[in-house]
Write a structure and sequence with these properties.
The structure holds two protein chains of two kinds. In chain A, 79% of the residues lie in helices and 0% in strands. Chain A starts with a helix and ends with a helix. Chain A has helices at residues 4-16, 19-31, 35-59, 65-108, 115-131, 133-158, 176-190, 194-200, 210-243, 247-253, 264-293, 302-313, 320-356, 358-364. By secondary structure, chain A is mainly α. In chain A, helix 1 packs parallel to helix 9 (210-243), helix 1 (4-16) packs across helix 11 (264-293) and helix 6 runs antiparallel to helix 11 (264-293). Chain A is built from 14 helices and no strands. Chain B is an all-alpha fold. Chain B has three helices and no strands. Chain B has helices spanning 2-20, 27-48, 56-76. The radius of gyration of chain B is 20 Å and the shape is elongated. The N and C termini of chain B lie far apart (52 Å). The relative contact order of chain B is 0.09. The chains are: A mainly alpha, B mainly alpha. At the A-B interface, helix 4, helix 7, helix 12 and helix 13 of A face helix 1, helix 2 and helix 3 of B.
Chain lengths: 365, 79
């Protein structure tokens, strides 16, 4: 079992994983100087999804969303829904794994192949999964401090380079660009959080004020991302921010403290959050498979699933154009389907069955 | 040659893991275990034969083709 605070930390780290480095450029490309507003708006809208997932999982006795699907929709439709979620978790985990390899081979080790970085990430994921959810939660709790320190350090050391005029005019082109940016940010990372909320509540030992406390963590993630965007925009401006692949990393390259290079700090913070995000996707997929097989937790599938992640992550984005097409056009509705539409369906069916089937209502109690 | 060595290595891991893991192994678990290793080896073979391997992004694009682009154009005000 894990504490509610640890579950909050997992959600916070999941939101920041991968997004912390790339969201500034994605949001700035569409929302320009209002990118920070787009992230806050997305965080606010995304709360609906969080509420739905927490409500459904809590009402079926703090189970995972895959288990909730089986309870609410029955063994046939529930299995189809569960398979969908397992596929989504594997897909997301593969994309997150690819992000690490791409970043490493683009900026740090250009001639290196992707797979060694993927393999390292997955070896840690397998080890953490075998230790149990408490190990993942403890790992996240311990290293979340790093993320906070990195942001504070950036704020303090970059303060002399801030140019607040880069943030004006606020809503200069109206709400349309803000909505567009919000739509993309909702898909990545806010609707994806179904993977963590739909898995973690099963292991939480406290059940009071569950939604409120998870919402605090959700809001914390949104504010953190918005702050990173504000910092990036105030130093680089809209044009440069939207052109850079990893604006936060470039931002820390601008910091000069007694001639030391400290961009490695962002690299460390990012790797920590990405490791947690990838491990959560991996754990969700494995537990989902075991639930659907009705076998209980099994370590037997850990290695073949990790190998699958490593192999597919190597070729999942054949070109940069493919990556942009996937992230901008297809990922938001895809994440919406799993993060909003299916939890809403589960919520409605759950309520209808509770109302019209006394036997089902008794079963839930 | 590299693919051949990789496949052999994966099969050795699969065998070692199977023997090492104690406890009940129901038929569904056995089948899923075989399926996952089967997918891994098939993907490696497809890459070796320069065939387009299975990509989850392609399935997502196929599934959402009718709605994703009109939705994005509508939200961004392009249509």
């Amino acid at each position: 079992m894990i504490t509610l605070r640890q579950a909050q930390t997992l959600l916070f780290m999941f939101i920041l994983g991968t997004a912390i480095l790339v969201i500034p450029s994605i949001a700035a490309a569409y929302s320009k100087q209002d990118a920070w507003l787009a992230v806050l708006l997305a965080g606010l809208i995304g709360l609906v999804s969080l509420w739905l997932v927490v409500s459904v999982c809590k009402r079926v006795g703090n189970r995972t969303i895959v288990e909730a699907g089986l309870v609410v929709l029955g063994p046939v439709f529930g299995t189809f829904l569960g398979l969908g979620y397992v596929f989504f978790a594997i897909h997301l985990g593969i994309l997150v794994t690819n992000n690490v390899g791409t970043f490493m081979t683009t900026l740090l080790q250009p001639p290196a192949p992707l797979w060694p970085f993927h393999l390292l990430l997955l070896l840690v994921a397998v080890y953490i999964y075998r230790l149990g959810p408490w190990a993942l939660a403890g790992f996240a709790q311990l290293l979340s401090v790093t993320l906070i320190l990195v942001l504070l350090f950036g704020l303090l050391t970059l303060v002399g380079q801030f140019q607040p005029q880069f943030l004006r005019p606020v809503l200069g082109e109206g709400w349309r660009p803000v909505w567009t940016g919000s739509y993309l940010v909702l898909g990545f990372p806010f609707w994806e959080t179904v993977i963590v909320t739909g898995w973690v509540l099963r292991w939480v030992n406290e059940r009071d004020r569950l939604f409120r406390r998870m919402a605090v963590s959700y809001g914390g993630g949104a504010v953190y991302l918005a702050t990173v965007i504000v910092l990036t925009l105030m130093v680089f401006g809209v044009e440069l921010t939207s052109e850079l692949s990893y604006p936060l990393y470039s931002l820390f390259q601008e910091i000069h403290v007694i001639d030391l290079r400290i961009e490695g700090l962002t690299l460390f913070a990012w790797l920590v959050s990405v490791q947690i995000k990838a491990t959560l996707c991996y754990a969700f997929a494995l537990d989902g498979i075991c639930t659907l097989l009705r076998t209980g937790k099994s370590v037997l599938l850990t290695v073949p699933l990790a190998i699958l992640f490593v192999i597919v992550a190597d070729y999942v984005y054949p070109t940069t154009a493919h990556l942009k097409q996937v992230v901008n056009t297809y990922w938001p509705p895809y994440a919406m389907m799993f993060g909003l539409v299916l939890p809403l369906l589960l919520f409605l069916v759950l309520h209808l069955r509770r109302r019209f089937s006394p036997a089902f209502a008794r079963q839930l109690r | 040659m590299t693919t051949f060595i990789l496949v052999a290595f994966i099969l050795i891991i699969a065998r070692w893991e199977w023997v090492r893991t104690s406890g009940e192994k129901p038929m569904r678990l056995r089948m899923t275990y075989t399926l996952l290793y089967g997918i891994n080896i098939t993907l490696l073979a497809m890459l070796q034969l320069k065939m387009a391997p299975l990509n989850p992004n392609d399935w997502m694009i196929w599934l959402l083709q009718p709605i994703a682009e009109p939705m994005f154009r509508w939200i961004s005000g392009e249509s």
